[in-house]
Amino acid sequence: MTHWSRFQTVSLVTLRIVIGWHFLYEGLAKLTNPYWTSAGYLAESQGWFSGFFFDMATSPKVLTVVDFLNIWGLILIGIGLILGAFTRLATIAGIALLALYYLAAPPMIGFTYPMPSEGSYLIVNKVLIEMVALVVLLAFPTGQVVGIDRLLPRKPKSGALHQAHA
């Protein structure tokens, strides 16, 4: 199935699992905190899409949906990555969610946020790094090697269909 070394396989699966744990933990932390809301984060948005995020923060109905999707998105993405279940979908959803986080608070010159960051960032921050790590995982079907995806039926590749009929 793969031509990866044992070290490559263990490294990629470990990366998938620890990112999954981070997503799952963040979702559960938000779920179990009755005072958590994304309103402050969205309202403090700066950059190209700040108006879009600010509008979300100021609409109670939209904010309720955003908070629900954020919490359960984090939890489901985390579970999928940890278990190697629907890994491609979980990875793409994780990339999309992280892209939204990055766009809401881009680390650019002149942008300051009330929440202190862990360091001084310029363009590259931990959100971008985790997003790029998920892009790397998207290139490797680790759930097919170690995970529930191994047990799920796979669609044949288009090349395999042509070979089977030849």
What can you tell me about this protein's structure?
By secondary structure, this protein is an all-alpha fold. The chain has one domain (6-165). It is built from eight helices and no strands. It has helices spanning 6-31, 39-43, 50-58, 60-83, 87-104, 126-138, 142-145, 158-165.
Q: What's the helix count? A: 8
Number of distinct beta strands:
0
Low-pLDDT stretches are: 160-166
Radius of gyration: 19 Å
Shape: globular
* Largest sheet properties: none
Q: Which class of secondary structure composition applies to the elements?
A: mainly alpha
Helix content: 55-70%
Q: Quote the beta fraction.
A: under 5%
* Element-by-element helix/strand order: HHHHHHHH
Overall mean pLDDT: 88
Features:
mainly alpha; 8 helices; globular
Topology of helices and strands:
Elements: H1 6-31, H2 39-43, H3 50-58, H4 60-83, H5 87-104, H6 126-138, H7 142-145, H8 158-165
Helix pairs in contact: 1-4, 1-6, 4-5, 5-6
Question: What is this structure, in a nutshell?
Answer:
The protein has 166 residues and is mainly α. Helix content is 64%, strand content 0%.
